[in-house]
Amino acid sequence: MPYEDLMVVVRAVVANGFKVVDDHCPKGSQESLTAVGYHFRGDRVQVVALYENTPYFSINEVYVDKDGRPHLSRSSVGGVIKPNGDLEAGIEHYNETQKSNPLTPCRIGEVFRAA
Fold first, then answer.
1. What is the spatial distance between Cα 65 and Cα 75, in angstroms, rounded to a whole number?
2. Nearest residue to 9 (alpha-carbon basis) of 50, 58, 51, 46
3. Is the pLDDT at 115 greater than 80, yes or no?
4. N or C: which end of the chain has fewer CB within 10 A?
5. Contact 61, 47 (CB under 8 A)
6. Could you please report the per-residue DSSP string of 57-96?
7. CB 74 within 8 Å of CB 24
8. What is the C-alpha separation between 10 and 103, in angstroms, rounded?
9. Contact present, 77 and 70 (Cβ < 8 Å)
10. Is 3 helix (H, G, I), strand (E, B) or coil?
């Protein structure tokens, strides 16, 4: 995804107070995020949802619908992060363990945090 498209998603999440429509819920309830970040897998880059106060979470893509609303996708793009209250440590651990991924190593890059 081009950088400009990534920033459209990030800006939509920031403008919506880090709340996204959760596609896991049939009624589209709002989900609050700690942050969003760039997830790299080979040549592919996506914006993903990040949480802090949870034992673990699947890394799911965040996208913007045709009306400009940010959504949390049901599709996992890169495994699991285990922050246990420290998002930075969770990301560091994820990035370190992904270095030995025999298929396509992934990593979380730049992170945009809620204030």
1. 15
2. 46
3. no
4. C
5. yes
6. EEEEEEEE-TTS-EEEEEEEEEEEE--TT-HHHHHHHHHH
7. yes
8. 28
9. no
10. helix
**Rounded to whole angstroms, what are the CA distances from 113 to 22, 38, 99, 110?**
19, 12, 24, 10
And the tokens for 16?
């919506």
Q: Are 45 and 36 in contact (CB under 8 A)?
A: no
Surface-to-core class of residue 14, CB atoms within 10 Å of its CB (0-12 exposed, 13-18 middle, 19+ buried): middle
Helix, strand, coil shares of the chain, percent, nearest 5, are 20, 45, 35
Residue type, 83: P
pLDDT tens digits for range 47-76? 999 999 899 899 999 999 999 999 999 999
